[in-house]
Amino acid sequence: MLPKNSQLNTMIKTPSWSRISIVATLCLSTWVSLATAQSNASFVEKDVTGHQALSRELAQNMWGWAETRFHEQKSSQAMQQILAEQGFKVEAGIAGMPTAFVATYGSDDGPVIGILAEMDALPGLSQQAAPHKQAIDGKAAGHACGHHLFGAGSLSAALTVKNWLQQNKIKGQIRLYGTPAEEGGSGKVYMVREGLFDDVDTVLHWHPGDQNTTQPMSTLANKTAKFRFHGIASHAAAAPERGRSALDAVEAMNYMVNMMREHVPSDTRIHYIITNGGSAPNVVPEFAEVYYYMRTPSAADLPALWSRLEKTAQAAALGTETTVDWEIMSGVWSTLPNATLAKVAHDAMQTFGGIDYSPEEQKFSDEIRPTLSKRALKQIGNEQKIATFTDDIYHATASTDVGDISWNVPTAGFVTATWVPGTAPHSWQAVATGGMSIGYKGMQLASKTLALSAIRLFEQPELIQKAKTEWRERVGDVQYQSQIGDRSPAL
Predict the structure, then answer these.
(1) What is Dmax (Cα atoms) for the chain?
(2) What distance in Å separates the CA atoms of residue 131 and residue 134, rounded to the nearest whole number?
(3) Cβ neighbours of residue 481 under 8 Å, at least 6 residues apart?
């Protein structure tokens, strides 16, 4: 029993109208926030669905064109035309790349949010939209990384955000960046170098995949170059002593690099192909070329390792009495994760849920699954789920030029299930699934997630500030410097 006149007793017996008012205000505020969130989600659902036919047609056309890096003329032009017709201001041919563009809508007196749109296909991966391996006659390339879905899905999201800004008279700006040559061309790096992201508050992107996940992710930094050896041609049988084989030099370099693999950090990756090995076996090759990729988790570690790679080229030339020169083709930084933005994307994706296959899509999935790895059997049904969100960083082994943007602007991306679970990127199965309705459904989920994420950032600028604070903490004292130097795009 409480003693008489105690403060607690008084509080219980005498209602505090100020406290009641505060509680009522908080309840009303929460209700309004929930109602607004539901209203925005409904708007996004309706708007994205409203131009679903447009985005699917665009994706299907891009899939058919399958244009490789720096040659995405039809894809880029198609996107630019749609954006211009929808009221965006389009600036094309930027950063020295004919197919790069920036499309802008909105005012200069609010947040600036960028969305990335890739468009390039991969060479040598022509494939029909069928559950068995079958190339398209006359086609040499295919969208094995789903960039046709990436581009069309991002464009769809930008249209929805534009419509929302317009309808609600919100101050701010949405930008769609048409970014060519992600596959080995580092297109975004040139855009960063031109300062095209300097005034952007946050950047959002996504990527086709075989699951739905928004987990914060890092990728590997990389650098690529073509090493060109020059020798002396001669008859390989009649006068071999007069020749100096450029191909021998390539093979000597490759041998030394393969020995070097044992003496680099275990998470370093080195790949190469011989792009020119001579023209005839009975002619000592006077020219040969080898194309190298090197990847590391941190861009800071690349210079020392790359220097060793260059030394193998110099040593190979010395030992074979040839000469060598090389051209840096591309180079990207690792991706800097941002958990704040990733959580915004996760909440948005959760709003819409996973993907349900139609009977026809399930049949396609069942038919293509035996061509996948055993891992695919463990992933059946992943397209229906949204992966649980954690702040733990997922360390991917791929590389992307998004990395360079992320070291200059708070950036986050996510993955949706555009492929049958268990599908590997850069495979014929990815091309096949990306050319039919399974791919389009994953793209639609991405469009909705991007759009609702951007809308929430416009409505809650404190999230942008939180993302910037996290970004500054992660960057620390690292000074960004492009891996490509002052070279022009390798058109």
Answers:
(1) 118
(2) 9
(3) none
Which residues neighbour 235 within 8 Å (Cβ) at sequence distance 6 or greater?
Answer: 243, 282, 283, 284
Q: Which two tokens stand for residue 345?
A: 């994307």
Per-residue tokens: 52: 């679903």
Smallest CA-to-CA distance from 157 within 381, 327, 345 is with 345
pLDDT string in tens for the chain (491-residue length) = 334 444 434 443 445 555 655 555 545 545 445 567 789 999 999 999 999 999 999 999 999 999 999 999 999 999 999 999 999 999 999 999 999 999 999 999 999 999 999 999 999 999 999 999 999 999 999 999 999 999 999 999 999 999 999 999 999 999 999 999 999 899 999 999 999 999 999 999 999 999 999 999 999 999 999 999 999 999 999 999 999 999 999 999 999 999 999 999 999 999 999 999 999 999 999 999 999 999 999 998 999 999 999 999 999 999 999 999 999 999 999 999 999 999 999 999 999 999 999 999 999 999 999 999 877 777 888 899 999 999 899 999 999 999 999 999 999 999 999 999 999 999 999 999 999 999 999 999 999 999 999 999 999 999 999 999 999 999 999 999 999 989 999 88
For the chain, domains (ranges, CATH) are: 41-218+334-475 (3.40.630.10), 221-332 (3.30.70.360)
Say what angle helices 73-85 and 147-168 make with each other, to 10 degrees: 10
The pTM of the full predicted model, rounded to 2 decimals, is 0.89
Which of 52, 64, 246 lies closest to 155, judged by CA? 52
The count of residues in the chain is 491
Look at residues 88, 92, 94 and name the one whose alpha carbon lies nearest to residue 174. 88
The residues, any chain, with a CB within 8 Å of residue 201's CB and separated by 6 or more, are 111, 112, 113, 409, 410, 457, 464, 468
Q: How far apart are CA 482 and CA 192, in angstroms?
A: 9
DSSP label at residue 13: H
